[in-house]
Each structure stands twice: as C-alpha cells, then as structure tokens.
Amino acid sequence: MKKVLLCAVVACLATLPAMGGTVLKIGTADPGSGNCFPFGCAYNAEYQQIYNQTDFSGPIQITDLSLYNTQYNSGATQTDAGTFTISLSTSPKNINNVSGAFAQNIGGDNTQVFSGSINQSWNFGDTLNIHFTTPFNYDPSKGSLLIDVTGTGVSTPGGAIYYDVDSTQQLFSRVYCSGGVACGQNGTVQTDYGWVTGLTYNSVPEPGTLVMLGTGLLGAVGVIRRRIL
Fold first, then answer.
1. 67: part of which helix (H) or strand (E)?
2. Residue-by-residue pLDDT tens, the chain, 229 positions
C-alpha cells in the first residue's frame, strides 16, 4: 500500500509548475552611465530600492540579486570589501510615495536574506551575483518589493564600480545617504531611478494549484482504500 500511495503522491506533484532558476531583469541600462551606491563605493550607510508591483507577474521566491556593469568602465579590479547586510520585505509604500525615513518603507515580513562579503576580482562587463542564504517569498498583489542594504566597514580596494542604472522608466525608486556616510533615520529620496536589477527566482504555486494537489491526493487515497477493502 505504501508503494502505491507514494506513486500517487509523485503523480500529483508532477502537476505542479516547474521550479527553478529564472532571472527577471528589471530595467534597461542608461547609455554610458552608472552609479556606485551602495555596492560599488565605500558606502557605510543604509540604502533602499523599492520596485513597482507591476514589474512582477505573480508570486515568486527570490534567491539571488544581480547587478550589471556594462556601461561605465572605471578600471576597477575588485568589488567592495566589508560587510553588506541585505533584507527584503513587502513595502507599504510604492515608488511614488516612498519615504525618506527608512523604517517607514520596511514591511512586516522583513527578512534578512544575506550578510557577508561580496569581495571578488572584477573586470568591466562582469555581473555581481549575490546568492541569498535565505530565500524570500514575494507576492506582488500584497505590495511593492523593498530591498534594504546596510554597508559596514566597506572600502574599495580595487576602485569604485559603477553599476548599470535606469532613469527613464517608472520601475523603481531609491532612498540613500549622500556620500555613503550614515545619515541616521532619514535619507534622500530619488524617484524613478535605481540599479538595473536581476532577480533569480523560483515560481511559487498559486493557491488553486495547491488545492488541486490536495484534492488529488485525497482522491488517490480514497481509490487505494476502496481497492484494499
């Protein structure tokens, strides 16, 4: 009976959408320009970037953050040294009413997804990929996506890196500390501007799919029981 039930479970799981490794790239690089906040400068402060809900088509589980360096060649040979702490949440704000007060932009599901070094060798055209130690489940129907970054003990041993930015579309906004120096509880708001962002994600099954799975399992168990009886 156990073998038959296991086969039924596998059959039901096979109806779930495939998981894994899709990259959603948000933004188009402004030609010939870039910005080093916060991962390319000696940025020892808090930084936030908030994303429009319409950037996403449905619930996802985010596993990686990627930034690109295709437009401005500063000759950097290493990424920043120091510690970066990254948290994600579903923000109560949107890109048009983001607050200069960092705390007001953070959602109740705030989750630390990474804390550590990003230091590595670097060449112009490379992609900075930060793999999260804790994935974050995001549902765009519940609010905007917020990425919160804090840099500590950060320096630029190989020179500053200017990552690609987009200032031409209403995709995201940011809050930052001028000069990369801690500015307390309030930063400077810049709307419709931010990194061109790559988010690696897995699909999250819709509630209806989970209901179908549960119904299928119950049905399979019922059939098995009738056959045994």
1. strand 60-68
2. 444 333 443 344 333 444 458 999 999 999 999 999 999 999 999 999 999 999 999 999 999 999 999 999 999 999 999 999 999 999 999 999 999 999 999 999 999 999 999 999 999 999 999 999 999 999 999 999 999 999 999 999 999 999 999 999 999 999 999 999 999 999 999 999 999 999 999 988 665 544 444 444 445 445 444 554 5
The crossing angle, in degrees rounded to 10, of helices 2-13 and 207-228 is 160
For the chain, report the end-to-end CA distance as a whole number of angstroms.
12
CB atoms closer than 10 angstroms to residue 205: 15
* List of domains in the chain: 24-205 (2.60.120)
What phi, psi does 70 have (nearest 5°)? Answer: -115, -5
What's the residue count for the chain?
229
